[in-house]
Amino acid sequence: RPAASAPVLSPREDELFMAEALKVGQTGLGRTWPNPSVGAVVVQHVDGVPRIVSSAATAPTGRPHAEPLALAAAGELARGSTLYVTLEPCSHHGRTPPCADAVIAAGVSRVVAAIEDPDHRVKGRGVARLRAAGIWVTVGVGAEQALFDHAGHIRRVTEGRPHVMVKMAVSADGKAAHAGPKPAVVTGPEARARAHLMRAHTDAILVGLGTVLADDPMLTCRLEGYESRSPVRLVLDAELDIPLTSALVRTACDVPLWVIAAEDAPAHRAAALNERGVEVLRAPRGADGRIHIPAMVKLLGLLGLTRLMVEGGPTTAARFLEAGVVDEVAVFRSPVILGSDAFPALAGRPLIRLTQPVGFAEVERAELGADHLVRLWRR
Ligand code: AOF
Ligand code: ZN
User: Fold this and answer.
1) Which protein residues have their CB within 5 A of the ion that is ligand 2?
2) Which one of 47, 60, 184, 364 is at 20 to 30 Å from 34 when CA atoms are compared?
3) In the 3-class helix/strand/coil scheme, how is 5-30 assigned residue by residue?
4) CA quadruple 137, 138, 139, 141: dihedral positive or negative?
5) Count of CB atoms within 10 A of residue 244's CB?
6) Degrees (nearest 5) of the Cα angle 216, 188, 353?
7) ∠ at Cα 344 (343, 348), nearest 5°?
8) 332-374, pLDDT tens digit by residue?
9) What is the pLDDT of residue 375?
10) Ligand 1: centre distance to CA 215 (Å)
C-alpha cells in the first residue's frame, strides 16, 4: 500500500500546487461543456524536492477528463506521487472509465481535491473509492476558487441551468450605446481585451434581437491567440425576425448560432435560417407574451451549456435581472460621456439595479486603462 511511504507536503505546498491546478483548469473554461474544465497536476519528489512532473486540463468537448491525461503524461513518475485536482475524480462509468480507477491504477499515493463533485453520479463516491484503495485523500484545498471556476458545472448539475453572467459596458453618464446603426465605442483596449477573454471562457453568449438590429455584431472572440475560442452565439428572437443578411446569420456555418424563438414563430422563417446553418430553438412564452426567461435558461441547461454570458442590450439585461436568474454581473465603467441621444444602460430601471444589485457581493474591482471593471456575484 503506497500511502505510508508518501512524502508529506505542507499545507502551504498543497495550496501552491492546487493554485497551479486551478490555473491549468481555467484554461479550458468555455470549451469543455457539458463537462466542467478540471485541472490536474502530478507532483513527485525528486531528490527530496516536490516538483510538478505533469499537468493537464479536461480536453475540449469534455473528454478525456483531466486526471488520465496528467497521469499518462507523468508515466512511471505517477507512482507514489501526489495528484492535485480541482474537482473530485469521477467514479462513474461514462463514455470513459472512472478517473478514480485510473488514479488507483497509476499508483498515486495521495490525492488533494479542491471540492467534491456535486454530479449525482459522483458526489463523494470518487473520494470513497480512492480511500478504499488506501490512497490518502484531502478535500477542500483551494475550494473558494474552485467554487468560482466550477460555478457553471455546479449550477447545471444541481439546478439544471447554466451560470448566468450579465456583462455590460456603461458610459460615465450611465448609457449603453448611441442611438444609431453603429455601437458607440465606450471602453478602451484593455477593457476590450478582458471582455473578449470573458467571451473565450464562456460556453455561450446571448443578445436580444434589438442589439442585432442596432449593432449587427459578430459576438466572436477576437483576442489574439484566442481566435478559435468563440462561444456559441445566441439571439433571443421570439418572432424570428433576425435578418438573413446579418453578420451573425452570414457566419453561422463558421461559429454556431442558435436563435431562440417562441413555439409559434413562423415555420418558414425557421426553415430559411436552418438552410443557412442556424439552429432554431423553441421556448415557451411568459404571461407578457415574450420568451419566458427562466424556462429558456433551463432549456440551455438541458442542451449542456454551463456558462452563459448575456451581452445586451439594455432591455435584455433588464429582463434577465428581473427574472432572477442572474448569478454574476460584470460592469465596465468608462469615463466617456455619450450624451442625451444614447440609450440608458438598463431599460426602464435605475442603473443601480445593475451596478449594485440587491443580494450581490463584489468579488473584483480592476482598473483597465481608463476604464473600471466591477464584478459582483449573487450571495
Ligand atoms: C473528472 N475529471 O476532468 C472532469 C470530470 O460524461 P462523462 O462520462 O464525461 O462524465 C461527465 C461528468 O464527469 C461531469 O458531469 C462531472 O461530474 C465529471 N467531470 N470529472 O474526474 C474531469 N471533467
Ligand atoms: Zn473523470
Assistant:
1) 65, 90, 99
2) 364
3) HCCCCCHHHHHHHHHHHHHHHHCCCC
4) negative
5) 13
6) 75
7) 115
8) 999 998 888 888 888 888 888 888 899 999 999 999 999 999 9
9) 97
10) 38
